[in-house]
Amino acid sequence: MFKNFITDIFFDLDHTLWDFEKNSALTFEKILMESDIGVDLNDFLKVYVPANYAFWKLYREEKISKTELRYQRLKSVFDTLGHSISDDMIDHLADEYIAHLSSYEHLFPGTIELLDYLEPNYRLHIITNGFQEIQDKKLKNSKIEGYFEVVVNSELAGVKKPNPIIFELSIEMAGTQPNRSLMIGDSLEADIQGALNTGMHALHFNSDKGPTHDFCDMIHELSEIKTYL
């Protein structure tokens, strides 16, 4: 479908190539145990996952700062669970989470095989809203950094997806054009609509089993990308 005109493929990182939920769960398992926080991991994650999503949406919309994101997503979980915890401990857990998250390296099934398949024929890049200090470590520790020519994060761009500026900067740095570029990501709002609004093509990796839509084609396994490219 895209073979005849796409030269550059831009991937989101978290929830698309790098298995955020699995790596995040392993990180919390470690830091909650080491800090002797008396909450059940499954109970914690059941509240944390949607809370993190909600606070990231606020951060993406410039409604809260990075510091507020890191604090509030934890504070809200402990409040919901009725677990008393000091602000100092929340700050400690927030620091420990960032320090250890990128040390885990689980990728979605088929990531390496897909990148090996695409690399000979396309230039590959990353556009991510994640924090620079850990996104680079994620790429390095999961041994996929060498596949990507351009890596643009929201701190470098000064804006977050779906703001068109981050897509325009990425296209400029890659030395390509929107109509020759394909964005692949998990977020309908940030990745898909953001890319389409910039004139890029898009392919939605529906890793969280969200609802169907008509914005672009949707896949549920990374291996399906091979049928388009």
UniProtKB/TrEMBL annotation:
<dbReference type="InterPro" id="IPR052550">
    <property type="entry name" value="Pyrimidine_5'-ntase_YjjG"/>
</dbReference>
<dbReference type="GO" id="GO:0008253">
    <property type="term" value="F:5'-nucleotidase activity"/>
</dbReference>
<dbReference type="InterPro" id="IPR023198">
    <property type="entry name" value="PGP-like_dom2"/>
</dbReference>
<dbReference type="InterPro" id="IPR006439">
    <property type="entry name" value="HAD-SF_hydro_IA"/>
</dbReference>
<dbReference type="Pfam" id="PF13419">
    <property type="entry name" value="HAD_2"/>
</dbReference>
<dbReference type="InterPro" id="IPR023214">
    <property type="entry name" value="HAD_sf"/>
</dbReference>
<dbReference type="InterPro" id="IPR036412">
    <property type="entry name" value="HAD-like_sf"/>
</dbReference>
<protein>
    <submittedName>
        <fullName>Noncanonical pyrimidine nucleotidase, YjjG family</fullName>
    </submittedName>
</protein>
<dbReference type="InterPro" id="IPR011951">
    <property type="entry name" value="HAD-SF_hydro_IA_YjjG/PynA"/>
</dbReference>
<dbReference type="InterPro" id="IPR041492">
    <property type="entry name" value="HAD_2"/>
</dbReference>
